[in-house]
Amino acid sequence: MNDSMPHPCVTSPFSMIPKNYQHLLALAFAVQEINDSPHILPNRTLGFRIYDSYDNARRTCQATLRLLSVQERLVPNYACGIHNNLRVVIGALDSHVSLNMANILDIYKIPQVETLFSVCFCDTPGLPFYQMVPHETLQYEGILSLLLHFSWTWIGLVFMDNDNGQRFLQNVFPMFSKRGVCFAFTERVPPETYMNQIYVMLEKGAKIYDKLVDSKANVVVAHGESYSIAIFRWLTYISELENRTSKLKGKVWIASAQMEVNAFVYQRHWATEIFHGALTLRIHSNDLPGFKSFQESRNPVSTKGDDFLRHFWQQAFGCLFPSAIAEDVEEENCTGKERLESLPGDFFEMSVTGHSYSIYNAVYAVAHAMHAMSSSEVNHRSIMEANGQKFRNEEAWQVMFSKHYSDSEWELYLWFFFLPSVKNQNSQTLTIDEETRPLSVCTKSCRPGSSKKVKEGEPYCCYDCITCPGGKISSQEDMNDCNPCSDTKYPNKNHDFCLPKTITFLSYEEALGLSLAFLAITFSFITVLVLGVFVKNHRTPIVKANNQKLTYTLLSSLLLCFLCALLFIGEPQILTCLLRQTAFAIIFSVAVSSVLAKTLLVILVFMATQPGSRMRKWLGKEKADAIFLCCSLIQVGICSAWLGTSPPFPDVDTFSMAEEIVLECNEGSMIMFYCALGYMGLLATISFTVAFPSRKLPGSFNEAKFITFSMLVFCSVWLSFVPSYLSTKGKSMVAVEIFSILASSSGLLACIFFPKCYIIMLRPELNNREQTPGGACREQVTAAEDSLLATATSTVLVAISSSDSQL
């Protein structure tokens, strides 16, 4: 741009993109407004020259040298003759063209104002760039926000195969990946090429087309230059050229701000449906008063000094002026009466595009800077572009040269080709039908109750949905991991929220607890009846045959054992926890010690009756009482040590049962618990070992055989108790122990006392001293006792089996 009369534009014999002609008009319109305004650069006239770079480095350098040469003679540094004062150069739309210009302009210190969207040229050392648009990375953040808003996490990237495209990939890949967006593919589109490379471009385009069609990604982010949409249109043309049946549709395109909806002339009738509904970010723009009329006034017949106009007119309307008609050309003649409003949007727009508005602002920025430097008010003040110096005019726009772009505003534009599901209710709101909104994810969202598991060898956006394991939930979609419920809660069936656990213990209000309590009371009542029978018949031979004190002690111990079972039912308390295990261990040890003493007494009696036996001196109640007391006191010592070191206490178990909080008694020390249990087993084993050899001793009142069977029942019950106790949890574990107590105690009661009660109550004729060993009556008594003993034993074992099946 220079401060002289406008110079005629240089004519280009080459093809151009018709839509770019509006950029020229925006520059000319701004210069005309400034020259007509008395407030900006009074007594000065701005002029301009416009050159076509043809998107070619060599021609760009030639055009730049012409600007710097006298009378466009392409003779650098030749200053003889008329020389216009070149103030500033407004760069091209594409960054690679501007960089080619900058290297030459920097030699002459000619400032260059950029309206393109690219990296910040202010960061390029040694080059005098002034950028009119935000940093390019800001639009990447805008695109990322758009993707996240619609939950589009599986996308494709299509960009031009040049330095800008490579820089775009390097910036976008880590930025998007960090926010959870994955890339289904990244494809490089060949730039415009020479005819001898057309087949290479078509082959590459066919591969890109197949990738777009086959990919599950329904969102494609496109990056390129101002002309890139015209290049991307080849994708549709390739599918028609090769008669492909698969169509590229249903994709949402998100275009970078550099790209405009445009086309080459030969693409006039090419399909555009693949871009319908495409979204793009654009720098904020305003309507320019009078610009529409300025455009409408352009006429190739009457307008002078615009050599681009005729060329644009021919390409845009598909006609030829009579002076340009060649042979074998079937286009109609241009009349000059064609209307710009009738052109499609990809050829020309009557409204101001973002690029045109940036060029308009660039011209005004330069004019204000020149005006400020020439004004007497600022003659002694330097203008620093890096300090945020502002320039204003009476219109509603503002320009700022600054290194800070965080306050820049962007607009979201929708390219309407055909999109019936979008409604623009007002100027600020865009409403999209959620039912028709496309999804673009590698894997559908994991529902609540499941979590994501990344597939091996695939991007992290591709994952399997696995159900939350036990004890964990996920209340939201697409959670990376499930969260555990608290100790007092458990997951519901769908694993999407936690339910409070039920507090439970073996109570009298439930069937199991009530049944066990009933059994304990029933056996206690039976024991009382048996004790009553023995007390009533205490003078009969069968009662007097053994130590009555031990018999009464054994019955009393069994009665207390049955009642001990009631301590295990109900909510655990401090006292019940202290007594339930220790009381049973001591009482049952007393019972087994009584059995052991009775067994030894029977053996000593029969051994003493042998001729010449020396065992008579071991007979006596004192010896039996000593054995009984010694064996019982050992268990008392074990339980006392237990209570003194690690006593049982009420506890809350939140882990054993998935849906229940179990109130239980913590044993305090499992070692002491198993010591007490093991000692009872030792006493039973000794009793069984002693009684088994003496089971066939003669005599109607021989208890050895009954004791043998009772110890066999005891050992069977408690050997099955240990694995059952360890394998059950919660109140079932308590029920197992109660049943073991009842079964072992009832086994002693039935095997030892039921045969005697049978004789006392049903066969009193056998309850006399005349039934001595060796007689027929002895055989009858023995047969009756054996039959009753077998019946009692089978009854206990059946009860054990039945109770096990219930548990």
Automatic annotation (TrEMBL):
Entry keyword set: Cell membrane, G-protein coupled receptor, Glycoprotein, Membrane, Receptor, Signal, Transducer, Transmembrane, Transmembrane helix
Per UniProt, residues of the G-protein coupled receptors family 3 profile domain are: 512-771
Tell me which PROSITE patterns the record gives.
G_PROTEIN_RECEP_F3_3, G_PROTEIN_RECEP_F3_4
List the GO molecular function terms: G protein-coupled receptor activity
* Main location, first listed in the record: membrane
Transmembrane ranges?
511-535, 550-570, 582-606, 626-645, 671-694, 706-726, 738-759
Q: Name one GO cellular component term.
A: plasma membrane
Compartment(s) of residence:
Cell membrane
**How would you describe this protein's topology in the membrane?**
Multi-pass membrane protein
Please indicate if the UniProt record lists Transmembrane as a keyword. yes
Q: Which residues form the signal peptide?
A: none
Entry keyword Endoplasmic reticulum: no
Q: What InterPro entries does the record point to?
A: ANF_lig-bd_rcpt (IPR001828), GPCR_3 (IPR000337), GPCR_3_9-Cys_dom (IPR011500), GPCR_3_9-Cys_sf (IPR038550), GPCR_3_C (IPR017978), GPCR_3_Ca_sens_rcpt-rel (IPR000068), GPCR_3_CS (IPR017979), GPCR_3_vmron_rcpt_2 (IPR004073)
Q: Which family does it belong to?
A: Belongs to the G-protein coupled receptor 3 family.
PANTHER family per the record? CALCIUM-SENSING RECEPTOR-RELATED (PTHR24061), G-PROTEIN COUPLED RECEPTORS FAMILY 3 PROFILE DOMAIN-CONTAINING PROTEIN (PTHR24061:SF599)
In Swiss-Prot or TrEMBL terms, this protein is called G-protein coupled receptors family 3 profile domain-containing protein
Q: Gene that codes for this?
A: LOC123016556
